[in-house]
Design a protein that fits this description.
Order of helices and strands: HEHEEEEEEEHEHEEHE
Number of strands: 12
Shape: elongated
Distance between the termini: 22 Å
Strand order of the largest sheet: 1-12-9-5
Largest sheet: 4 strands, antiparallel
Structural class: alpha+beta
Strand content: 25-35%
Length: about 240
């Protein structure tokens, strides 16, 4: 999905957050429209039995708001960056000098980094193991794993999105065009066009690929439940932390 954002092919996302009451009892509410009034837009639902009106505000934001993007990342020693690959910005760690060596933020969506081993000489990192024993005990180098997006600090974010539109609809009401806007891509296999969100698992239709992605995030049965969802449309506002 990060690669799709960078390529400009992902311009929508769907969320259920904030619609819990509406989705708690399937079929109880019907969507009426956008409620008028000052301030942020609220979306009005009508309760079928009582006629009561429920107003819901999109927690993801309103058109014009900006969102900063979290992604899988880590701080890495500069020796592990391939030629031409640039770290985004320094965070906290590094090796004191002189001269000091700053660690830089790497993003997994850009691919894996080069493995490195500890060395006995400054800057205490090398692309080759010290000896066969070092290679035996550290076959993949001394680099630690990637950090989850939930741990990304704001200053490490390189992508900022500007919301261009918000609406509500049933999950399964997504159109083929919107499925593509969610980041599903077409691939050719043996002369047959298939669809994927991961590049690994492929499906005969774009909608099937998105349904599989939705269930991988929201759990088994979440697609069949067909909840009301926020449809948040956005454009890439630029690189760097959100504002």
């Amino acid at each position: 999905m990060i690669r799709a954002l960078l390529a400009g092919t992902k311009t929508q996302t769907r969320r259920v957050s904030g619609l819990d009451v509406i989705n708690a009892t399937p079929g109880r509410y019907e969507f009426v429209g956008i409620a008028s009034g000052p301030g942020a837009a609220h979306f009005a639902f009508h309760e079928r039995q009582t006629g009561a009106q429920v107003l819901v505000k999109c927690k993801q934001g309103q058109p014009g708001d900006r969102l900063w993007v979290r992604e899988t990342f880590k701080e890495a020693h500069p020796v592990s960056f391939q030629p031409g690959r640039v770290g985004e910005r320094k965070l906290y760690s590094g090796i004191p000098g002189p001269p000091p060596v700053d660690y830089w933020v790497a993003y997994r969506a850009d691919g894996e980094l080069l493995p490195y081993w500890h060395s006995d000489e400054y800057p205490y990192r090398a692309l080759q193991p010290r000896d066969d024993l070092d290679l035996k005990f550290n076959p993949r180098g001394c680099e630690t794993g990637w950090d989850s997006p939930i741990h990304m600090p704001r200053k490490a974010s390189r992508l900022t999105l500007e919301i261009t539109g918000v609406r509500v609809e049933r999950l399964q009401g997504i159109s083929e065009a919107d499925v593509i806007a969610e980041g599903v891509t077409a691939v050719s296999s043996g002369g047959v066009t298939l669809f994927t969100t991961t590049g690994v698992n492929c499906f005969q239709t774009a909608k099937d690929a998105y349904a599989a992605l939705w269930e991988s995030i929201n759990g088994p049965g979440s697609w069949a439940a067909n909840p009301w969802v926020w449809v948040v449309e956005f454009k890439l506002a630029g690189n760097g932390g959100g504002v």
